[in-house]
Amino acid sequence: MSTRKSIFITGGGSGIGRAIAKYFGDRGYFVGLGDIDQKGMDETLALIGNGFTFSVKFDVRDRAAWDEALDAFATAAGGQINVLANNAGIPIGGSLIENSIDEIERCLDINLKGVLFGAQAVYPYLKAAAPDSCLLNTASAAGIYGTPGASVYTATKFGVRGITESLDGEWAEDNIKVRSLMPSFIDTPLLDHTPNAQSNQGIRERVTEAGLEITPVEEVAKAAWEAVHGDRLHTTVGKTAKQLAFASRWMPGRLRKQTRASARPLGK
């Protein structure tokens, strides 16, 4: 079995996944990527350059594909998986009544079921590698307090937060770390998407108009490293996320009033 630690990252073809891959690769990890975007994964791997890389094209909604992908990665990495970064996700915004059935189901399947399937599939590998193992789930500031104009996305990220807390308890006796990242608006290609099919205004434009900060993606990668190697269950990333976490705990009434006063669904 290899002594080099390994990390498998879904959504590794761009954005947060790419930043995490580079950060861990630069620090000696064997890096594996899973994505539906092979070109994006190839570009990510080219940025690492340590020679210890792997990629597999698959859809996180496919439970059987998870087993195949992780088995192939474990073989390539010398028989072990130390970290799964359950990072693949898509945005969706707009008021709930604007969201189509297809948009809702796709977001739920990728952001929520994909995380559950990944955790289920990687469990035996993380158990074998414990105590040097970690399940790292990408949640969101939207999993701290409900976001108007993003009810479906918010539901998935509250779900990811809940999964993290549940598995932290379930897997404690196996000495497997379970952690989540809760970033606010991060400078990735996802911000350039429109929030739903009925909108023609990008998410980045809405964030800028609202006067909210956009955090460099490298900050998320650093937070991922600290989460995997530290003791904190949830790690907030970015000013907005930290403010939400503080307000939801210490000023819930004021936060509710501010949220209702500022509510303007994405895409409007």
Give an overview in words.
With 268 residues, the chain is of the alpha/beta class. The chain has one domain: Rossmann fold, CATH 3.40.50.720. The protein has 9 helices and 7 strands. A 7-stranded parallel beta sheet has the order 3-2-1-4-5-6-7, with helices on both faces. Strand 5, helix 5 and strand 6 form a beta-alpha-beta unit. About 5% of the residues have low confidence.
Summarize the topology:
Elements lengths: L5 E5 L4 H11 L4 E6 L2 H11 L4 E5 L5 H14 L6 E4 L14 H29 L4 E5 L12 H20 L6 E7 L19 H7 L7 H13 L4 E4 L1 H12 L1 H11 L6
Parallel strand pairs: 1-2, 1-4, 2-3, 4-5, 5-6, 6-7
Helix pairs in contact: 1-2, 1-7, 3-4, 4-5, 8-9
What is the CATH topology descriptor? Rossmann fold
Reported CATH architecture: 3-Layer(aba) Sandwich
Helix and strand string, N-terminal first?
Answer: EHEHEHEHEHEHHEHH
The main β sheet shows up as:
7 strands, parallel
Biggest β-sheet: strands ordered side by side in the sheet? 3-2-1-4-5-6-7
Return the structural class. alpha/beta
Instruction: Describe the global form.
Output: globular
Instruction: Detail the poorly predicted runs.
Output: 199-211
By DSSP (H or I, 4+ residues per run), the number of helices equals 9
N-C termini distance: 54 Å
**What is the CATH class?**
Alpha Beta
Tell me the Rg in angstroms: 18 Å
Overall pLDDT? 88
Number of strands: 7
Helix content: 40-55%
Summed up, the domain count is 1
Strand content: 5-15%
User: Could you name the CATH homologous superfamily?
Assistant: NAD(P)-binding Rossmann-like Domain
